[in-house]
Amino acid sequence: RSFGNRSRIIMRGGLFVAGFIRVITGGMFSGKSQELICQIDKARASGNPVDVCYPRIAERQSPRDIQGRVMAMDDQSGVQLFALGTDEFSFGTIRHKLLSEIIAIDEAQFFSPHIVDVVKKWRHEGRCVLIAGLDMDYLEQPFGSMGDLMCLADDVVKLHATCSSCHDKPAFISHRVSPSLHQVEIGETNYVALCLECHRKLCSGDRQRKEEYGALRETARHPS
Ligand SMILES: [Zn+2]
């Protein structure tokens, strides 16, 4: 594998270029997986096989998941799904598993930091990598390796949901409604997408929660 075989990627409108990395990011409910599936479908339709991978821990078998969306595609030819362990990018075997010239990764924030080196290697092999994932956790801290992946990317698309409270402004906060304080709390029912104003209103109505958030943000910023 080298850049020499770049012609194996069929380009259409400059969308899928050898060695190109695109990151699709944003908060919860912002349409990242929807955008990723559109690109997967365009790649497939232009004759490129696509390997689609996602972390097994995020598998909920819901129609909104990437595997649900792939299953719902009218034509799935050339598209292969891979559920991976979160540390699977640390194993050399990953490169024998995913062989397509176009690789799509969903929920990339859950993978271990080794994902960054693997994506770099794929770039130098002339593969095109499409990555979707949450930019921040509920404490507004960069999530997993998404920050590094955005730096590597040739193109970054940031999407925003509409606030689920006022249904008007763009949502910048993935507000957690469940009481858990772990960074990873999987499940869309645990979150709502809020604009800054609605988030402020909600937090000022819940003083204890506000203090909890403040303390957590501090420890996340200055880990002991
Ligand atoms: Zn709002």
TrEMBL record:
<dbReference type="Pfam" id="PF00265">
    <property type="entry name" value="TK"/>
</dbReference>
<dbReference type="InterPro" id="IPR001267">
    <property type="entry name" value="Thymidine_kinase"/>
</dbReference>
<dbReference type="InterPro" id="IPR027417">
    <property type="entry name" value="P-loop_NTPase"/>
</dbReference>
<keyword id="KW-0472">Membrane</keyword>
<dbReference type="GO" id="GO:0004797">
    <property type="term" value="F:thymidine kinase activity"/>
</dbReference>
<dbReference type="GO" id="GO:0071897">
    <property type="term" value="P:DNA biosynthetic process"/>
</dbReference>
<keyword id="KW-1133">Transmembrane helix</keyword>
<protein>
    <recommendedName>
        <fullName>Thymidine kinase</fullName>
        <ecNumber>2.7.1.21</ecNumber>
    </recommendedName>
</protein>
<keyword id="KW-0067">ATP-binding</keyword>
<keyword id="KW-0547">Nucleotide-binding</keyword>
<keyword id="KW-0812">Transmembrane</keyword>
<feature type="active site" description="Proton acceptor">
    <location>
        <position position="107"/>
    </location>
</feature>
<keyword id="KW-0237">DNA synthesis</keyword>
<dbReference type="GO" id="GO:0005829">
    <property type="term" value="C:cytosol"/>
</dbReference>
<comment type="similarity">
    <text>Belongs to the thymidine kinase family.</text>
</comment>
<feature type="binding site">
    <location>
        <position position="191"/>
    </location>
    <ligand>
        <name>substrate</name>
    </ligand>
</feature>
<feature type="binding site">
    <location>
        <begin position="184"/>
        <end position="187"/>
    </location>
    <ligand>
        <name>substrate</name>
    </ligand>
</feature>
<keyword id="KW-0418">Kinase</keyword>
<keyword id="KW-0808">Transferase</keyword>
<feature type="transmembrane region" description="Helical">
    <location>
        <begin position="9"/>
        <end position="29"/>
    </location>
</feature>
<dbReference type="GO" id="GO:0046104">
    <property type="term" value="P:thymidine metabolic process"/>
</dbReference>
<dbReference type="GO" id="GO:0005524">
    <property type="term" value="F:ATP binding"/>
</dbReference>
